[in-house]
Specification:
Elements (H helix, E strand, L loop, with lengths): L2 E9 L2 H16 L6 E10 L2 E8 L2 H17 L4 E10 L11
Antiparallel strand pairs: 1-3, 1-4, 2-3
């Protein structure tokens, strides 16, 4: 069963949000073949972003969580607050795949 991580970051400025989105695109892309199944980056408002990841197993999830936590700490983000939710994916269906 795959694992998910849902992170919402709220920033002090739109510019900081833009900067972090660009940084995360690069960093998350570098984790290809490390267990990531899906990555969604969703703008919630001008200064807020949602990252939603699915990961193939608990071990890879913990490695990715630790890697991204360290990355986030290194970036000296200008955050107002952060919300992190983790769990198991109970069901998934990709409706865009042909039958």
């Amino acid at each position: 069963m795959s694992i998910f991580r849902n992170v919402v970051l709220n920033f002090k400025t739109e510019e900081e949000c833009d900067r972090v989105i660009d940084l995360y695109k690069i960093r998350l892309a570098s984790l290809e073949n490390k267990g990531l199944l899906d990555v969604y980056i969703c703008r919630l408002s001008k200064d807020s972003v949602l990252f939603f990841l699915t990961i193939d197993n608990d071990h890879n999830a913990q490695t990715i969580f630790d890697t991204m936590r360290a990355f986030r700490e290194q970036q000296n983000l200008d955050l107002i607050d952060i919300l992190v939710l983790d769990g198991q994916v109970e069901w998934h269906k990709n409706f865009s795949i042909s039958k």
